[in-house]
Design goal:
With 257 residues, the chain is of the alpha/beta class. It has one domain (4-255): Spore Coat Polysaccharide Biosynthesis Protein SpsA, Chain A, CATH 3.90.550.10. Helices cover 44% and strands 16% of the residues. It has helices at 20-31, 48-58, 75-89, 108-116, 138-155, 171-174, 188-199, 223-255, and strands at residues 8-14, 36-41, 64-68, 93-96, 121-125, 132-134, 167-170, 204-208, 210-212. α2 links the parallel β2 (36-41) and β3.
Length: 257
């Protein structure tokens, strides 16, 4: 039988990743030669988009594709555009992966194996047994770990690394998500997507990964991204609990006539 991972698309959003892009694509195809790549470039002024075109033209197997977006519209918008592109092309697994080398392509097989085994969403986790971070300053560790604890409490989920951005989706499950209802554009998008999958009853699993701080370029993390997640997460949690209470009330009312 064919496995879902036999037709995998790795979506790599880019903004000013000129030096990192060829390195990460090279590592990816060295580790998994049969996966395709979609570079979703948000109009990088440093020429990342032009370089992506050259990489695509040079790949004789046609595994590299490029989406040129006209503005820096945020991580969420880039991924949603990439998902829809993947839907149209018939890919059965869609992967999120950063361009900066923080996600090791050599570990992608762990996520793909989880989807092949039945997961709807496989998350690369820094915070389960076997997962770790490398070269991260204490400030980033504090924000990341604190953010995950905060999200777990506010949303009532058991996912240990709900903010992580290295993940593989089963396409048939991802197609059921209402993207218009997702109102987060930064890293809150990652929280929202994992929470949605959990709420929809899909199978969400975590696999341990090693997250390595970028060596080239600047992090895209900002205060506004952190603020967006902090403000939106409790709202999502409240909305989910409210919907559950209403459903329970209607069920009890129906039972009691």
């Amino acid at each position: 039988m064919d496995r879902p991972s036999d037709k995998t698309l790795v979506i790599i959003p880019t903004y000013n990743e000129l030096e990192n892009l060829p390195l990460i694509v090279g590592r990816l195809h060295a580790a998994l030669p049969n996966v395709d790549v979609l570079v979703a470039d948000d109009g990088s002024p440093d020429g990342t988009g032009d370089l992506a075109d050259k990489l695509a033209a040079a790949d004789e197997r046609g595994r590299i594709h490029v989406m040129h977006r006209t503005a820096k519209a945020g991580l969420g918008a880039a991924y949603i555009a990439g998902f829809k592109w993947g839907f149209d092309k018939g890919y059965t697994v869609l992967v999120e992966m950063d361009a900066d080398g923080s996600h090791a392509p050599e570990q992608l097989h762990l996520l793909l194996e989880a989807v092949d085994e039945g997961a709807d969403l496989a998350l690369g986790s820094r915070y389960i047994k076997g997962g770790k971070t490398v070269n991260w300053p204490f400030s980033r560790q504090f924000i990341s770990r604190g953010g995950n604890i905060y999200a777990r409490i506010m949303l009532g989920v058991k996912i240990r690394d709900i903010t992580g951005g290295f993940r593989a989706f089963r396409t048939t499950s991802l197609q059921q998500v209402d993207f218009d209802s997702i109102d987060a554009v930064g890293y809150g998008f990652q929280i929202s997507m994992a929470f949605n999958f959990s709420q929809m009853g899909f199978t969400v699993v975590e696999r341990p990964i090693t997250f390595t701080e970028r060596e080239i370029g600047e992090s895209k993390m900002s205060g506004s991204i952190v603020k967006e997640a902090m403000l939106k997460v409790p709202v999502w949690g409240w909305q989910a609990r409210k919907a559950k209470w209403k459903s329970r009330f209607k069920r009890l009312k129906k039972q009691n006539g």
